[in-house]
């Protein structure tokens, strides 16, 4: 289970449908995150039940 309170802007989250979105805002309530869809650039509020995991960014 993700602790959404600790998620920061710039991190990536995988959703149930396989989409990976970049966090653009953490609402701070532990339930909603604002994510940017990399395919179309649109932002949307996403509910915690749609989130599967935090996607770690590769280190160089």
Summarize the structure.
The chain has 60 residues and is an all-beta fold. It has one domain: SH3 type barrels.
CATH class descriptor name: Mainly Beta
> Which ranges are low-confidence, i.e. pLDDT below 50, for 5 or more consecutive residues?
none
Provide the CATH topology.
SH3 type barrels
Whole-number count of domains? 1
In what order do the strands lie side by side in the largest sheet?
A: 4-3-2-1-5
CATH architecture: Roll
Mean pLDDT: 93
- What gyration radius follows from the Cα positions, in whole Å? 11 Å
- Assign a percent range to the helix content: under 10%
For the report, how would you describe the main beta sheet? 5 strands, antiparallel
Order of helices and strands: EEEEE
Task: Please tell me about this protein's structure.
With 60 residues, this protein is mainly beta. The chain has a single domain (4-55), classed as Roll (SH3 type barrels), CATH 2.30.30. Helices cover 0% and strands 43% of the residues. The chain has no helices and 5 strands. It has strands spanning 12-15, 20-26, 32-36, 43-47, 51-55. Strand 1 and strand 2 (20-26) form a beta hairpin. The chain is globular. The termini are far apart. 7% of the residues are buried.
């Amino acid at each position: 289970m993700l602790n959404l309170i600790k998620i920061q802007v710039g991190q990536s989250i995988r959703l149930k449908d396989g989409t990976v979105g970049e966090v653009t805002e953490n609402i701070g309530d532990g339930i909603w995150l604002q994510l940017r869809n990399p395919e179309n650039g649109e932002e949307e509020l996403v509910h915690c039940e749609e989130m599967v995991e935090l996607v770690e960014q590769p280190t160089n």
